[in-house]
Amino acid sequence: MNTSQGTTGHPPQPRLRLRVSAPAQARLRAGHPWLYSDSIREQNRPGELGELGVVFDRQDRFLAIGLFDPTSPLRLRVLHAGRPQTIDAEWWSRHLEAALQRRESLFDEATDGYRLLNGESDGWPGLVLDRYADTLVLKVYTAAWFAHWPTVRALLGARFPAARLVLRLSRNIQDLAREQFGLHDGMLLQGNVPEGPLLFRESGILFEAEVLRGQKTGFFLDQRHNRRLVEELSAGRRVLNAFSFSGGFSLYAARGGASSVVSLDISAHALASARRNFALNASDARIAACHHQTVQADVFEWLQDANANDPFDLIVLDPPSLAKREDERLQAIRAYERLVEGALRRLNRGGVLLAASCSAHVSPEEFFDAVRRSAARSGRRYTELRTTGHAPDHPATFREAHYLKAIYLEFS
């Protein structure tokens, strides 16, 4: 089995071999893509950042191969598991095409903004690739990829020769990327610098994407499915889009026939983007007919305002992650409950609440239960319409990947 190391500049060394605990073996065989340092029982030599480490079971049978990181508790990110395969240029090309083919039938010309590679769940651990029209944004979350940088660049350049390619880097690897590899966040890897706002279409609606400096890769592509559902629920309703960011839910609600929409966010920059996105779509009579208002405020405080008497028929609660670490999980669950309690004070009879969470440390079950508890404490009768998870271009193939969840409740 060939396990090529990429371009590291070091002389060949014996293959990095790892043996792991019995529970870790079981997890790898079940398809889990992470191997933690405390699960390693034997290692033939110190490993280098980004080299390919091969995991064997206690009978010396191949289990998996992945990117090794000696500096992280998450010691190996699996590229391939099961039967041994040669990791060479042809393998990398097949690996990319397999992920791209899974998206071929998902979108038409009305949508040119979506995810092409979704990290571990697509077999590209710690790496995301998003499309915004003719621009691709590559976001890297682990420095282990830098050892394979020539391979990744050549692969994407050959597959997408006409696309603009932007690099985004997770904060925790930006210093290393700059000091050792000459890479920086927002770097243009291919193509020309965009001459103004970068625009793309989602379900026929135009949006700006801040690909060089914006959050994530420039937009929240993962909520597309829920935005479409909100459009279906909005006819004739007064809608509140809390934590509105650049107005994604607001625009779908307007196109769905909402009589008015309030975009509520603490960021003036985000609200300005929401107003620009509405202006981009002014030619759509349905959107133009909707009264759109932006309100800059802290959502928690705004919902708790005892003097407010401005009711809504549909409320969207889509906050940023409220638990960035495991030790923030319980605090986040309580915060979700407070948000729902505040929203229900502003929701009319017959109104619908959409509550969403992108906190990976809060499980779907914990989040849904928190929303249901708040709904029950309100004393109001409600019907649970549905729960949702990840869209097809954002697959989640293992437990920790299931960060996105949403629940729809209708109150009588």
From TrEMBL:
InterPro entries: PUA-like_sf, PUA_sf, RlmI-like_PUA, SAM-dep_methyl-trfase, SAM-dependent_MTases_sf
Domain annotation S-adenosylmethionine-dependent methyltransferase: ranges: 202-376
Gene3D superfamilies: PUA domain, RNA methyltransferase domain (HRMD) like, Vaccinia Virus protein VP39
Keyword entries, A-Z: Methyltransferase, S-adenosyl-L-methionine, Transferase
UniProt KW Aminoacyl-tRNA synthetase keyword: no
Source organism superkingdom: Bacteria
Domain RlmI-like PUA residue range list: 19-79
Pfam families found in the cross-reference section: Methyltrans_SAM, PUA_3
GO biological process, one term: methylation
GO molecular function, one term: RNA binding
PANTHER family (UniProt xref): RIBOSOMAL RNA LARGE SUBUNIT METHYLTRANSFERASE YWBD-RELATED, SAM-DEPENDENT METHYLTRANSFERASE
Annotated protein name in UniProt: Putative SAM-dependent methyltransferase
Organism: Deinococcus peraridilitoris (strain DSM 19664 / LMG 22246 / CIP 109416 / KR-200)
